[in-house]
Every structure is written in C-alpha cells, then in structure tokens.
Amino acid sequence: MRSSRSRLWVVATTLASLVAFSFAASPPASAAATTVVTLTYDDGVADVYQAGQLMADRGMAGTFFINSGAVGSANYLTRAQVESLHTQGHEIGGHTAGHVNLTAVSADEARRQICNDRSALLGWGYPVTSFAYPYSAVNAAVETYVQGCGYNSGRQIGDIRSPQGCSGCDYAEGIPPADPYYTRAPDSVQSTWSPADIEGLVTQAQNNGGGWVQVTFHHICDGCDIYGVSPATYTAFLDWLQGQVSSGAVQVRTVDQVMGGSVHAAVAGPPPPPPAGYGVNALVNPGLESSADGVNPTCWTVAGYGTNTFTAARTADAHGGSWAGSLSVTAWTSGDRKLLSRMDLGECSPSVSSGHRYQASVWYKSTAAVAFVAYYRNANGGWAYWATGPGQPAGSSWRQASWTMPVLPAGATAVSFGLALTSLGSVTVDDLALVDVPPDTTAPSVSLTAPTAGSGVTGTVALSAAASDDVGVTRVDFAVDGRVIGSAATAPYTAWWSSDTAADGPHAVTATAYDAAGNASAPSAVTVTSSNAARNLLVNPSLENVGGTVPNCWQAASSGTNAGSVALSADARSGSRAESVTLTSWTSGDRKLVVKQDAGACAPAATAGHMYQVSVWYKSSVAVPLVVYYRNASGSWVYWRTSPVQPGSGTWRQATWTTPTVPAGATALSYGLALTSVGTLTTDDYALVDLG
C-alpha cells in the first residue's frame, strides 16, 4: 500500500448520540464482466462542490468523503453545501473527524475519529455506509475499527495501476472486493494528469476484463494544489465518461451502490479523558521528552499560516529533562509558525470545562518577539482560533511566560496553545503547562480620585478613579445619583459628567469596578454640589414647565415633506416630563423640538465672536443631528449650522457639540435634535453654555 497524501488537517467532529436509522439497504453491483466507475472526492474541500452539479447534469452520482469536523470551516464545504450534494443524489461518506493518520494514533483516538465522524454525519440525516482512509493509512486493527463503527466498506489508495506508479498492480478492483474494508483504488488524480491520463484508469480496466475503478479527486481548481485537477480537465473527463456510459461500456455507481448493505446504527467512540482538576497540568508530554519517531515530540505538532519558510526539530538545549522543541522561520512574508499541542478528540488535546479560566505557561528563549495563541474545540468537535495572548520579548536565556486566558466560551471542550513566531527568528520551548485556575471570587477595589468630597462643580466635570484586582479590572462605571453616565475600560479610569444638565444642589457621584468574572467592587462615593443656574442660559431646560403640547419656551418645528407629531412624554431622564417627536412618513426635511425662537423672553441672548456648547439627553430609534439657528440683527431667525450625526440609542445618551464662533450680528440662539427619517426621538435636560 502506498500513501498518496501528505497533508494534515487539524479539525475534529461533533459527538452525536446513538441514533438508529432504518434506511433501505442498497443492493450490491452486479459481478458481471463490466467496468464500474465510482467518482470519489476526499476531504470535503469547498472547490469540489462544483462537481456535484456537473455530475448531476450528466446523470451521474458520486461519493463525497467528508471530514465532519471541517464542515463550515474556511475553505471547506458548508452544511448547506453538503446537504445540497445529498439532495442531488450523491453519497456522503466518512473520512474521520479530523483527517488523521489512523495508524499513528491510539486505538481509542482512532475509534473516536471514525465513529464520531460517522455519528455526526448520521445525525445530519445522511445514510453513511462508506469510509475512506486519510493518507491511505490502514492496517488490520484500523479495518476492525471501521467495521465496528458501522461502515460497510473502507477505501485505500495506490494499489491499482496509475499513470505514475504501481505498474505491477491489478488494473481494477474486483466486484465484490476480496476485502470490503480494504478496497483498492488508483492514485489520487494529480494536477499534472491530462484527461487522457484519467481516462486511462478506466480504459485499462475495460481492456483487461473489467472491474471496479474508484477515481479519487481532492481539488478541482487551477494550480491550487498538487492534487488539484483543473476544471477544464475535469469537465473533459466527465464528458468522455458520459459517452462511455451512453455506449453501454461503463456504469457509474457510488461506493454504496457497488458494495450494498444496510445502514447500521450510530456507534459512539470512546469518551475523551475528563478535565483535569484545579492546578493540575492537563498537557500530555508537557516536557517534550517523549517522541515516537525520534523527531517530533509526542502529542505536539508544528502549525501555522501565511507565506513563510520554517524548520522544526527536537533539541538537547532543554530547560528541564533532555529535550526541548525548536522552531526557526528562515523566510517570512506573512503569517506565523508555532508548536501546538495536537488538536484531536482526546488522545493529546487536554479536556477543559467551559466557563472556567485556564493559565498557559511555557519556558522559552527566542531571537524575536513571540506571542501566545490559543484554539478551542467546540461542542461539535471542530477546532477554532480563540484568542491571542500577550506578546513576549526576545531573550537568549530561559524565561517563563504565563497567560491567564479569558473565560472559556460555552461549549468549549478542549484547548490547544503555543507561542507564535511572526517574523524571522527562532524560538525554543520546553516545560509547558495548562492548568485550571480556581474561580475568581475576589472583588476589585476602587477609589474615586476626582471630584473631591464636598466640592462644588459647574459645567463639564472629570470623574476619575483608581482601581485594582488580583486578575484584572475590566471596567469602571461612573454614576451620578445612581444613573451610570459613563464607563472606562483602561486606566486612567475617567469619564465626563455635564453637571449643567442636572439640577443645582447636592449629587452623589460613585465609581464601581468590575473584573472578568463579574465580581463588582463596593462603590466609592462622594457628594458634590452643582451650581449651574447662572451658566445654563436656557429657560425651562428640563421641560418640566408645560403650557400645552410642548413645554414652555420650546416649540415644534419642521421642514420639507413628511408626516409626524410631537407630544409630551413621561419617559423622562430626570423629573417627570420629556418631549417625544415621531415621523411616520418621510420624503424630505425634518421635525424637531427647538428653543422657542422669539424676541427675547425664551431665546437666550448670544454674543458675537463667542463659542457655545449645546447639549441634550436623548433616546432615538435612528441617528439624529443637532441643528442650530440664530436671530440676526434685523430680528429674523435663520438656520446656522448642523452638528455631526449622533447615533441612535435605546437608552439615554447625551449629545454635546461646541459651535463655531457666533457670526457678527447674531443676537440669540435656538437649537434642537432633528429627526430626519422615519422613527422616534425623545429628549430631556437641555443646556446652552457660553464658552467665551
């Protein structure tokens, strides 16, 4: 047996429950002296999806061997595409959960890979009976695992004559095969093969007594892979094969149609080891001492992406014990390389508990900066990138790096991590660890540093706090009179409060710190006194005094073509009243509540050459801008400026804008938030302050 593939896919599968299926059994193909061709597609990469329609257009059906753990990953078939292939009449077969060499893993891992892959595919509704060995790696024990997981057949590659080898082998497999769990096939189709080369796999069988020819494709693309056949070559072969079928010289059948047999119930693979306890190193071979081949540390693998060239080796330059792992990037354009704990279904990848926090650590030395990277296995068994940890500096002597990872997401069942080299350089690693950290029950501490207790405040006030935590502060919330007015995620923790939008008098200011575990500090509180009556130039800024459908000293205004209304609202930010504006249809223009544009009783006087700060608290279903008007020297009101658009918000949010310098001749100002599309807007607590 010869292996025709040498690629590693790091994926895994979902663990499906035991489900019995009662699909109709398929009759085996006739043993008459004829040539039967089966078109098979390994690995479930995205570019083979086109084969489904091309075969269906010619009245043919093929067999797609799927790695269930890869479905939905980048460059692989999606669930919808697999379902489409099944609907077109193609067979869905198994290929292990993560495309692993079944002869190079433990018996339990091999059975997990085979059984759980089939269980997942059965759970998706496919009558799975056929299996293909990744890398064509199979021995007697693996054959028994395939049979024990409920498959009716297993296919290898390389023991039938091919354009590039096995010249002494048979021209075709027998019908039925001598060993249903070792059905023979030619080499996989390669990018250098011509249509005639692929056709030759069939004609050599036709010319030598017939038999079964399984033609294996991995990619259908132009130049993407050594095992990629161009769409033109593939289509030419299908057209030729269609002619052979039409003449009666060839039959095209799926693997299941050739082999026959019932669809057996799902069989669960052995469960993975349980998660380790708190503080216990969960890694297998953490010191990299063990190596099955003398080259690669057991349960570890080099992974990466992008365009770069690298070398990897075991080295006697160890931190502890006799061996360490070294990795060098000798040419780099993009991406990274790293040594990771092997991503599998339980033999090597450490089981974890979702919702827990884990600490990764590693001893290393490097000629370039490196960074932690982590992946997790989800509840469906697939592996996904998770997070990048802190960068670590280069150093010529051994140094330990540690990273407490974020809380594991729901459904996470295993973790893999390593140090990534993202530039030219080398890194040597040893003595790695992954430990479950006990739950964080320690609350952060926080202290308000500004404003000071008992101080008087006016205008916009800086609220500042110092905070600390045994793991890390995630945010500090600042509140005034129990209402959060701002948050800060990084030190120095600061937020801003427009005190001129609150009533004059005492106000309680608090700061509360939080950590990643959700622990909250006791609030740090001070009382301050605001004095803004002289600064806020507006009359009735909180809309509390009402003489009709709009508050006193305010007016509803509109422009353009639209329909809507304004109304008093009890949904107030402070006090008991606010004002709502609604647009039910819109073609152009706007609707808004603005400061009453009168001769002086309501409209605040303005000084030419000064700048003013306008602000308002609001909630809206759509984005809204501030619009400002001024009264000119002749007493007429004119539009002046529109502010940057303020985002829609379902909670109270303050819009603040500093105007340009008031033009010569302006004597008063009016402003408001404008509703310029269908939606709703509620406003309260306005302020207009002369900034000089």
What does this protein structure show overall?
This protein is mainly beta and 692 residues long.
Give the arrangement of secondary structure elements.
Blueprint: E1 35-43, H1 49-57, E2 63-66, H2 79-87, E3 91-94, H3 107-123, E4 130-132, H4 140-148, E5 153-155, H5 195-206, E6 211-217, E7 219-220, E8 228-229, H6 231-246, E9 250-252, H7 255-259, E10 300-305, E11 308-315, E12 324-332, E13 336-341, E14 357-366, E15 370-377, E16 383-392, E17 395-404, E18 414-421, E19 425-437, E20 445-450, E21 456-457, E22 460-468, E23 473-480, E24 483-488, E25 493-498, E26 505-515, E27 524-530, E28 554-559, E29 562-569, E30 578-586, E31 590-595, E32 612-620, E33 626-631, E34 637-642, E35 649-658, E36 668-675, E37 679-690
Parallel strand pairs: 1-2, 1-6, 1-9, 2-3, 4-5, 7-8, 21-27
Antiparallel strand pairs: 10-13, 11-12, 12-19, 13-18, 14-17, 14-19, 15-16, 15-18, 20-22, 22-25, 23-24, 23-26, 26-27, 28-31, 29-30, 30-37, 31-36, 32-35, 32-37, 33-34, 33-36
